[in-house]
UniProtKB/TrEMBL annotation:
<keyword id="KW-0819">tRNA processing</keyword>
<comment type="similarity">
    <text>Belongs to the radical SAM superfamily. RlmN family.</text>
</comment>
<dbReference type="GO" id="GO:0002935">
    <property type="term" value="F:tRNA (adenine(37)-C2)-methyltransferase activity"/>
</dbReference>
<dbReference type="InterPro" id="IPR013785">
    <property type="entry name" value="Aldolase_TIM"/>
</dbReference>
<keyword id="KW-0411">Iron-sulfur</keyword>
<dbReference type="InterPro" id="IPR007197">
    <property type="entry name" value="rSAM"/>
</dbReference>
<dbReference type="InterPro" id="IPR004383">
    <property type="entry name" value="rRNA_lsu_MTrfase_RlmN/Cfr"/>
</dbReference>
<feature type="binding site">
    <location>
        <position position="329"/>
    </location>
    <ligand>
        <name>S-adenosyl-L-methionine</name>
    </ligand>
</feature>
<feature type="binding site">
    <location>
        <position position="142"/>
    </location>
    <ligand>
        <name>[4Fe-4S] cluster</name>
    </ligand>
</feature>
<feature type="binding site">
    <location>
        <position position="149"/>
    </location>
    <ligand>
        <name>[4Fe-4S] cluster</name>
    </ligand>
</feature>
<keyword id="KW-1015">Disulfide bond</keyword>
<feature type="domain" description="Radical SAM core">
    <location>
        <begin position="128"/>
        <end position="366"/>
    </location>
</feature>
<keyword id="KW-0698">rRNA processing</keyword>
<feature type="binding site">
    <location>
        <begin position="250"/>
        <end position="252"/>
    </location>
    <ligand>
        <name>S-adenosyl-L-methionine</name>
    </ligand>
</feature>
<dbReference type="InterPro" id="IPR058240">
    <property type="entry name" value="rSAM_sf"/>
</dbReference>
<feature type="binding site">
    <location>
        <position position="227"/>
    </location>
    <ligand>
        <name>S-adenosyl-L-methionine</name>
    </ligand>
</feature>
<keyword id="KW-0489">Methyltransferase</keyword>
């Protein structure tokens, strides 16, 4: 059994004294400012700074969020004479598609993006009969070091800007529209990175994802899922924003002993603290919380752990919990594997027996390394 605990000390000591050391990525330059980074107020200022009348701001927003156009040369309601100036000041090209691969007969597509500084990251578009979901990245790499996740092995490169996050959403919406596949309906922050460790930029992206056009893409808040390792104070803060997006908590173990190694940030905010924050989220928003549980053979799939999971969730969240069991997706170099189907069925049965709703998540994209935990953005 290849059970390699991550650098646990990495969390224990610095966390107590200097949180920012752990959460701040290496100081890398962020990309140039983009229209999608701006809220309504800064948009008005930026437009005024260009010497343009205020109504141009709304026009630009209509083009970007409503018509999904990011190249001012294609904004036909903008006078040709100002297009270049607007492009230079507000619409730098942020992402280049380096590679696109698909599987599941084209229903799952993974995009590898390269930012202006060469940073790479991925997003995955999944088409289902009843919805279209894009799984987006909030950081290039990830600093959370969960040992079963490919992204976690490479460490954190840098935070993505709000516009870099929104450009992934826009690209997915364009792709669906241009191929006659309908509208983008769901966004999940389950790509690379820990969204709540890039809080302000992610929040800006969420706000403009759910805002009605022309101020945003107009995607329903309940169809936006923010997934976190369990940064308890940030979960509470997100609840207080009243955006009412769906929260997913990556629990993966009901006991601190195991969770300390599977999700190292548990050394800072343990199972009880993460569940208390999830309960707060559910109470404030009235939304059910998704509890993510990657089922790993002989690591966290024991019947007693299923019982304990059911018991703790029933106590902490009652009907406000829904467990998503994710069969572990293999990652390079790890000997860990998914649980056998019989063990998986028994696990689900036991969680349900405690009165907690529980289903197994359909995994997509395994063969193109696009499934949960497989994104590594190797160019
Ligand atoms: N950092 C956030 C979001 C990114 S990961 C978080 O941890 O929630 C999205 C989900 O995929 C998380 O629940 C994560 O634990 C899970 N995951 C990571 N690696 C996986 C793997 N190898 N197999 C299955 N799920 C995995």
């Amino acid at each position: 059994m290849n059970f390699r605990p991550p650098q646990v000390g990495y969390w224990r000591k610095p966390m107590a004294t200097s949180l920012p050391l752990v959460f701040d990525p290496p100081r890398r330059a962020m990309p140039p400012r983009h229209f999608a980074d701006l809220d309504e107020d800064s948009r008005s200022t930026a437009v005024a700074d260009l010497g343009l009348p205020a109504f141009r701001g709304k026009q630009l927003a209509n083009q970007y969020y409503g018509r999904l156009i990011a190249d001012p040369q294609q904004m036909t309601d903008l006078p040709a004479a100002v297009r270049e100036q607007v492009a230079d000041a507000l619409f730098p090209r942020l992402l280049d598609a380096v590679r696109e691969i698909e599987c599941d007969a084209g229903e799952t597509r993974k995009m590898l993006w390269r930012a202006v500084d060469g940073t790479t990251f991925e997003s995955v578009l999944m088409r289902y009969p009843d919805r279209n979901t894009v799984c987006i990245s909030s950081q290039a790499g990830c600093g959370m070091a969960c040992p079963f996740c490919a992204t976690g092995q490479g460490g954190l490169n840098r935070n993505l800007s709000t516009a870099e996050i929104l450009e992934q959403v826009r690209a997915a919406a364009v792709e669906l529209r241009d191929r006659d596949h309908g509208r983008l309906s769901n966004i999940v922050f389950m790509g690379m990175g820990e969204p709540l460790a890039n809080y302000n930029r992610v929040l800006g992206a969420v706000r403009r994802t759910v805002a009605a056009p022309p101020n945003g893409f107009g995607i329903s808040a309940r169809s936006v899922t923010v997934s976190t390792v369990g940064l308890a104070p940030a979960i509470r803060k997100l609840a207080d924003e009243r955006l009412n997006v769906t929260l997913a908590l990556s629990l993966h173990a009901p006991d601190d002993e195991l969770r300390d190694t599977l999700v190292p940030v548990n050394n800072r905010w343990n199972v009880s603290e993460a569940l208390d924050a999830a309960r707060y989220y559910a109470d404030v928003t009235g939304r059910r919380v998704s509890i993510e549980y990657a089922l790993i053979r002989d690591i966290n799939d024991q019947p007693w752990r299923a019982d304990l999971l059911g018991k703790r969730l029933h106590g902490a969240l009652g009907p406000l919990a829904h467990v998503n069991v994710i069969p572990l997706n293999p990652t390079p170099g790890s000997e860990w594997d998914a649980s056998p189907k019989a063990a998986e069925r028994e696990f689900v049965r036991r969680v349900r027996a405690r009165g907690v709703s529980c289903t197994v998540r359909d995994t997509r994209g395994r063969e193109i390394a696009a499934a949960c935990g497989q994104l590594a953005a190797e160019g």
